[in-house]
Amino acid sequence: FREVTITHSYSAGPVETREALELLQEKAIEVEPLVTHRFGLEGVGTALRLAREHGEALRSVIYPHGIGVRVETA
After folding, report:
1. pLDDT for residue 74
2. Backbone phi, then psi, for 46, in 5-degree steps?
3. Residue 42, SS3 per DSSP
4. 12-61 pLDDT per residue, tens
5. I need a surface site. Which of 2, 24, 46, 66 has the fewest CB within 10 A?
6. DSSP code string of 22-36
7. Are residues 35 and 61 in contact, defined by beta-carbon separation less than 8 angstroms?
8. How many helices (H) and strands (E) does the chain have?
9. Angle at CA 43, nearest 5°, toward 61 and 66?
10. Please, are residues 41 and 62 in contact by the beta-carbon 8 Å criterion?
């Protein structure tokens, strides 16, 4: 019930973050290929293992509601 959110970030300040979000909104850069792996919550262990052991997971995304599940926001 605590609704914890974990967000990883790497050394980006407010200016860089705004610029990155603008580029994403304008679709000025293609980011889809940067996501190398996708997992539901059941795959968290695998995602962490891939990142630690193999170095092949450039960017893994964990979907808490499952892969392919769209969550509507208000």
Report:
1. 47
2. -65, -45
3. helix
4. 788 988 998 999 899 998 888 888 889 998 998 998 888 888 767 778 88
5. 2
6. HHHHTT-S--GGG--
7. yes
8. 2, 2
9. 65
10. yes
